[in-house]
Structure formats: C-alpha cells, structure tokens
Amino acid sequence: MVDRYQQFTRTPLGKFLVPKLGLPSPATLRRYRPGQPPLDGPALLGAAPGGRLAKTVRAQLADAGIEVLTESVADQRYGALVFDATGITEPEQLRELHLFFHPVIRKVGASGRVVVLGTPPELAGGRERIAQRALEGFVRTVGKELKRGATAQLVYVADGAEEAAESTLRFVLSAKSAFVDAQVIRVGTEGIPAVSAPESWEKPLAGKVALVTGASRGIGAAIAQVFARDGAQVVALDIPAQGAELSRVANNVGGSALQLDLTAADAPDKLAAYLKERHGGVDIVVHNAGITRDKTLGNLTESAWNAVLTVNLTAQLAINDKLLADKVLRQGGRIIGVSSIAGIAGNLGQSNYATSKAGVIGMVNEAAPGLAEYGGTINAVAPGFIETKMTAAVPLVIREAGRRLSSLGQGGLPVDVAETIAWYANPASAAVNGNVVRVCGQALLGA
Q1: Of 21, 66, 314, 367, which has the fewest CB atoms closer than 10 Å, so is most exposed?
Q2: Where are the bilayer-spanning segments (predicted)?
C-alpha cells in the first residue's frame, strides 16, 4: 500500500509546504539489503564507570564490521551511540547519561541508532534497581526526540549473559530494526544457556525447518521470504481457501505448502504428523495466522467473539501443547507469537481481537520458563500500523492517524515484522526468552 502523504513530502511543493505548516515529515527509513554496511557511519561507545559490558560490546561490534570510536570526534556524524549503563548502581549516577549523550545526541545520522545497555532491574537490588529502571524513561524519551528515522533501544543484559547479547546488538543496530523503536529487550533472565554464533551471520537459519502459519500473504509471506533468505526450509501453512496464494509463496521461497484449518479438532495431530514425517521435526514455529471480526462490544455476536479467540489464541495453545508433548519441536526450538499493539493498548471495536492478542502475550509469559528448561525460547512481536491489504481497507482518516501517531510518523512494512521474528529465530538468540517487542515505530498510544 502506498503512503501518498509521505510521497508528497518528498516533492518540491511538499518540501516547501510541510515545514511551513508544521506538518509531519516522515523520513525514508534505511532497511536491510544484503551486502550493505551494518551502519551508515561509526559507532561511538561509552560507559559509566564500573560498566561490565563495554569491552565485550566493542569486540562484538568490531566482529560485525562496525567501526567503533571511544572518543567523540569534531564534526563526525555517528551511525550509532552505544552506552553501557550497567555501572550505574545509584540514582545519582544517572547523570552519566547526560554526560555522554548531551554533547553528541545531535550528531546521530539519518536512520541512526541509540542503544543503552543495562542490568535487568528485577535482577538488581536496592538503589541499583531504581537506577536501572530509570533507564526506560530515558530511552523512551530519546526515541521521541530523535529525528530523520533514528531509533533508540534499551537492552537489559543479565550478569553472565554478556556474550549472549551479540545477536540482539547486531539486530538493534542494523537496518533490520528499522521500525522497532524505544523498546525494552531482556537478554538472559531465565537462566543463561550456552550460546554460540551461527556458522554464517548471513545465513543463520541454515539447516533449520521453520513453520509459518497464515503464510499466504502480508506479514506471513514476508516472514517466509526472510526465513528463506536466512537459510531456513520453510513450511508455509494456511487454510485451504488460500491454497493458490499459499502455493505461490511456498514456490517463491523454495519451501512446501500445507493447507490446514488450524481450528479443526484434529489439526494439532495432523500438523505434528506432517512435520515429523516430512522433516523429522521442526525448529521454529511462528504463530502468524489471525483474523478480525470488528464490532463494538454491544454489536459483537458470540460467534464472532469465538472465531477470533479460537484462531488467534486457543488454536495456538493446542498446537504448542502437541508439538512439545510429542517432541516434534526440536531441542533449542523457537516459538514466536504475533501479538498486536491492540493487545497492549486496546482498540475501538476490537474487544475480541485485543483480548486474543493480549492472550498471546500471556502465552509468552506463561510458557517462557518451561521452554527454557526444554532448551528453547518463546517470544512475541506486537505490530503497530503495518502497510497491508487489511490496513488498506481502514477508513482514510483512521488510516492516516495510525500512520502518523508514532515517533517515526509512518506505517511499517511486513518485512519489519519479519526481520524481528528472524532475530528471535536466530540460534544466537538463545538467551532472548519471554520478550514482547513492539514493531510500531514507537506508537504514541499504549505502553
């Protein structure tokens, strides 16, 4: 779907009128292309005294091909500002944030990155817990102040998970996180597994079998494409009515198509048997299938309520139970849910949808400890306004509000959701468990 307003802002007339009228001017976001440099400029790395991450992070960034500076350079534009705040153990030390960022925050380049690294507050004690929790307010505000498509993230890294944070750092600093803004990510809080880098960071999913539900179009098709790009063998699943589109997607990614109604009573058994017989199991399960039946609660029928809750939540729970009970999901497997910002903030006319998507977050919270014991992970994405056929049908005024009410001032693309899911699926993300990351350009509604 084309964002005509954003196109207008790039015309000579738009460039003249938009600033005069004080209208939003959405930046062109830098999105990932194979072979491109990780950042458009060097990363400036700083640390509060006593920080435990800076040395490891410097080596990880260098391994990723990022030029790392530790001293500010006059007239230098930075691709990223990275600050190790793990040494902040008292609220008074929060001044270290100002000391580092104040002189250089205006030097962040277009589509640049700001990353603050901290210790999970729940794993800290006393005043350190207070100081580390304060980092969230700082990062969320910086995300709203940055311009030209730049983003800010907070990554909490548990003590002992320093090496396990590399995949997350690579993701949040790269163009793959273009529409992820002002998010809080936790690494290594559910026990810290052994984490090793993939044989190839360009093909991290090589040798993996990935199931993507709702794969015939939109976000599901984008997930299939990104997984295939990253080396996975993709099983694309959707209902029989979407069979023709599903086959096209599967053929395009060199995968297989499975037509199955996941709400059928025997669907978990059929799916488990298919995955075991055809592939010997599955490594990655993405619960992307979902429907809407929008009505205000007073006009919402029982059948519409039940249909949405079944597809968007209870069918996923039944599949998880079956794949885990029969060990179809391999050791070290990944389960990834697709929630929604509606599940966080609610949305007019979507009581059933918002309930189901909040339930997906609950699914992640409930299952994360068990998946950690199994050697796997479960996480979720929560998309905001994404340019799809579904959002194209939204009335114009509501559609424009959805696009503009975010720090990035525009809608995201299906690939933005897919890139975030691929980060979760990366074998090097084994210490990322129980997270819910919004892919919403820091929507101004919700938490």
Answers
A1: 21
A2: none
